[in-house]
Design brief:
single chain, 185 residues, alpha/beta, Rossmann fold, seven-stranded mixed sheet, 8 helices, 7 strands, 38% helix, RNA-binding, KsgA/Erm, transferase
Length: 185
């Protein structure tokens, strides 16, 4: 059911969805591998879609950790609210990740520990990507990480413009196969 919803949203807006199917559990596992859940007080997720990464984050988070989900797609946001809206410390926001600064401040935070991104930087307008990455770097704690995945290596250089350390892992068990980038300062 969620798979069909995802495909429909992709057909309606491929530039903003970026994939024909939700991410696999294998990709989700690689996306959260570098997170020190025992020390994370706040995690932000951009573009959670149907919640594949969100599930993995929630399964590993400590009880006091704040999770901010920023989803630009109205249908996905509605789905996320149904699934997670009742959970404490989970904030579901229907907006663009471009406004991450406003939402971090809205919850009285200065910095966040991790940002997990499902955004398709390869298909987003350049100015949107630059704005999101700039704010992500600005609001990450010094030892924080920005973790994203892409289907190509095209945006690796862009990530390196904002983060000194960019490590990469290939995940073949996903449709299509993907690269996970773990970025830090």
């Amino acid at each position: 059911m969620e798979w069909l919803s995802f495909l429909k949203q992709y057909i309606q807006g491929p530039r903003w969805i970026g994939a024909i199917a939700p991410s696999s559990k294998y990709l989700a596992a690689k996306m959260v591998k570098d997170i020190a859940f025992d020390r994370a007080s706040c995690i932000v997720e951009y573009g959670p879609g149907t919640g594949v990464f969100t599930e993995m984050l929630l399964a590993n988070m400590q009880p006091g950790t704040v999770l901010i989900l920023i989803e630009n797609n109205a249908r996905f946001c509605q789905l996320l609210r149904k699934k997670y809206g009742h959970l404490p410390n989970v904030h579901i926001i229907h907006d663009s990740a471009v406004h991450v600064d406003q939402h971090i401040q809205q919850y009285g935070l200065d910095k966040v520990d991790y940002i997990v991104s499902g955004l398709p930087f390869a298909s987003l307008p350049a100015e949107v990507s630059l704005d999101i990455l700039s704010k992500s770097r600005q609001y990450l704690k010094q030892d924080g990480k920005f973790i994203t995945f892409q289907y190509t290596l095209l945006k690796r250089g862009l990530l390196k413009q904002f983060f000194e350390n960019v490590s990469m892992t290939r995940v073949y068990r996903n449709l299509p196969p993907a690269y996970v980038f773990s970025c830090s300062q």
